[in-house]
Write a structure and sequence with these properties.
The protein is α/β, with parallel strands linked by helices and 361 residues long. It is 34% helix and 18% strand. The protein has two domains: 138 residues, Rossmann fold (3-Layer(aba) Sandwich); 181 residues, 3-Layer(aba) Sandwich (Rossmann fold), CATH 3.40.50.180. This is Protein-glutamate methylesterase/protein-glutamine glutaminase. InterPro entries: CheB-like (IPR008248), CheB_C (IPR035909), CheY-like_superfamily (IPR011006), Sig_transdc_resp-reg_Me-estase (IPR000673), Sig_transdc_resp-reg_receiver (IPR001789).
Amino acid sequence: MSTPDAPSPVRVLVVDDSPTMRLLIARSLREGGGIEVVGEAENAADAREAMKRLDPDVVTLDVEMPGMQGIEFLEKVMRLRPTPVVMVSNQTGPGTTAAIQALEIGAFDCVVKPRHAGDEAFARLAETVRLAARARDVLVALANRRFGKPRPAPAPTRKAPLRARPDLITIGASTGGIEALTALLRGWPEDAPPTLVVQHLPAGFSRGFAQRLAKSCAVRVAEAEDGMPLRPGEILIAPGGARHLLAQGGAKPACSLVAADPVSGHRPSVDVLFHSAARAFGARALGLILTGMGSDGARGALEIRKAGGWIIGQDEASSLVYGMPKAAFQIGAVDHQMPLDLMAEAVFGTHASPREPASCL
């Protein structure tokens, strides 16, 4: 029996067209503890009615369903009834187009379906659902910000004074960063300084994200590999999950990937990248800190500024989650705050002439 102080179980709706898969998902969640499966649905129409009737804390959602597909239904959920969603599908494996689309729309995370009962693919499902429930308020606010009524235009912002072009640009982002980076990096000119990016993503998603960015950028975009040289006109994205991305200076600047414990709660960590840029490039480093929950990047940004470098933070009005930029600003690490759409001009001195994307996130 639960004590009066025991937390209420997370109430979950399981949406999948396969009765067997619904059984496996529900069993895995119940065995994980602290979760109550309050309903099941086999298609989007049934799921919509179940959500109205049951008001679940979290929904698990398949991609391939009869009638409306899962990605389309996810967007409708986020637009009309924001609720934490965990995608559970064969189509949302690491780096897949469907997974990146789902994360951009607002899914909390993606889990690949297991091949049989007890498969390790479900080992983290219950914990993922519990985390999604705890992040409900933030996820709902994100969805309302993204799909709600247009916000008033921010007050005119004084543009940052231009400095000499840096030798290295480092960028950190988290929640909302996929959308922000896609918009920002379209403005990078072909001769832009080498750029290193840490975007908090699950393992396996960064390569697909880099490939999609490459379709909309004038510069080369790739997932970083250990020892890759830092060259103008190239953007390197930190691999998700296992290692930290660092900048190395010297006669032949390069990046390195280092296996180490998470820093500021993340691996790769924006703090680690920024600290390395401060050490290797000093006053020749520029850091941009974008939308995201938490404070990763704040201390590293301060190190860049102490070394004579330059930090630009995304302002609250244009941030989906004003967490990381706020943390950096509050400790005095940010030289200038500004809307996302002014950053490229502040760095390069001209309005961006972005290439039209071949596809949208």
